[in-house]
């Protein structure tokens, strides 16, 4: 089944994702909107039909930084190191992003998409107190890498 058969409407959004995916440089996309309108569904479906490594990290509501980083490590292992038996979780988000950058660099020939969803949960006060998601800072990957980055954060209610 193709993306056009699964995603009804959203022509403008699909065109923007297609343009970013086909770009020759790194791209940063922010998908925002009310909860439960299909942002995550759109992005997952769109990239499921693309030849790329798709890394998705979903923030966990009220989870500590340690738990958030463990989930990050599980996804990193699944996408970039599927045959590796053990991957040690980083102790902070700076080290986590360094691991992600290293993993993407090792897969230089394949296109990569990094998708962070519910990142507001990864940066919640409990997580921040425990050394949470970048301590509220934004990290930008070096431009020499041709990675695609999607960020989707639901609004809190």
Please explain how this structure is put together.
The protein is 41% helix and 15% strand. The chain is α/β, with parallel strands linked by helices. It has a 4-stranded parallel β-sheet. Helix 4 packs parallel to helix 5 (93-106). The protein is globular. Residues 1-5 and 125-144 have low confidence and may be disordered.
Summarize the structure.
The chain is built from 7 helices and 4 strands. With 157 residues, it is α/β, with parallel strands linked by helices. It is globular.
List keywords for this structure.
alpha/beta; disordered N terminus; 15% strand; four-stranded parallel beta sheet; globular
Q: Structural class of the secondary elements?
A: alpha/beta
Sheet-strand content, in percent, reads 5-15%
Low-confidence stretches: 1-5, 125-144
Record the strand order, biggest sheet: 1-4-3-2
- Shape designation: globular
What would the average pLDDT be, to the nearest integer?
A: 74
> Gyration radius, to the nearest Å?
16 Å
Q: Helix proportion of residues, in percent? A: 40-55%
- Strand-and-helix sequence, N→C? HHEHEHHEHHE
Using DSSP, what is the number of strands?
4
Q: Describe the biggest sheet?
A: 4 strands, parallel
Taking the alpha carbons of the first and last residues, their distance comes to 35 Å
Q: State the helix count.
A: 7
Secondary structure blueprint with pairings:
Blueprint: H1 3-6, H2 11-22, E1 27-31, H3 39-48, E2 53-58, H4 65-80, H5 93-106, E3 112-117, H6 119-122, H7 125-129, E4 147-152
Parallel strand pairs: 1-4, 2-3, 3-4
């Amino acid at each position: 089944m193709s993306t056009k058969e699964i995603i009804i409407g959203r022509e403008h959004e699909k065109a923007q994702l297609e343009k970013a995916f086909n770009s020759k440089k790194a791209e940063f996309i922010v998908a925002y909107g009310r909860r439960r309108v299909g942002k995550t569904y759109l992005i997952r479906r769109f990239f499921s039909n693309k030849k790329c490594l798709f890394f998705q990290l979903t923030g966990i509501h009220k989870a500590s930084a340690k738990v958030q980083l463990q989930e990050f490590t599980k996804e990193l292992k699944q996408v970039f190191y599927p045959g590796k038996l053990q991957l040690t979780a980083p102790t902070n988000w700076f080290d986590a992003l360094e691991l992600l950058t290293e993993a993407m660099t090792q897969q230089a020939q394949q296109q990569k998409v990094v998708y962070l969803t519910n990142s507001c949960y990864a940066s919640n006060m409990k997580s921040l107190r425990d050394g949470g998601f970048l301590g509220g800072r934004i990290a930008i990957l070096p431009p020499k890498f041709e990675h695609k980055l999607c960020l989707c954060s639901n609004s809190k209610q």
